[in-house]
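Entry 14. Structure prediction run on the chain below.
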Amino acid sequence: MLTHQCVHRAYDAPESEDKGDLASSLKELAQIYQFHQHYDDARLLLSKALGLEKLFLGRLHPQVAITTAELASIHQEEGDLGQATLLYKQALMIAERTVASNRLLLSSILSSLAECYRLQSLYAEARQTSKRADSLRTWSIN
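Output returned:
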């Protein structure tokens, strides 16, 4: 497994190296940390990947929405539902503003947000958000 020193050295690599591959690698490593419930490490790596994606892809890129939702899922797993909700809403805003809006991406983010609402006992919001996710999913299939 990579050490934090290796990750930091790679993150600070010269601009000529492919930062997109680095962002993907950071995200993969973050998933491993998240799986093993090392949430601080996962959050740090995912935040660095998100920063690279924003820098090189732009703030309104679908990949930025996906990574933001992944960061929200870490907060949700930790029980920080307020931060998770905020990040899911940010991811949703990005996905909605994307020119080539992907209905399945929107549906996925909405489903995660609905679950976050449910965990906070915000059942009306969860139901409404879930219905919106289902309608997008159904529309995409048809």
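Confidence is low (pLDDT under 50) at residues 1-11.
Filed with the rest of this week's runs.
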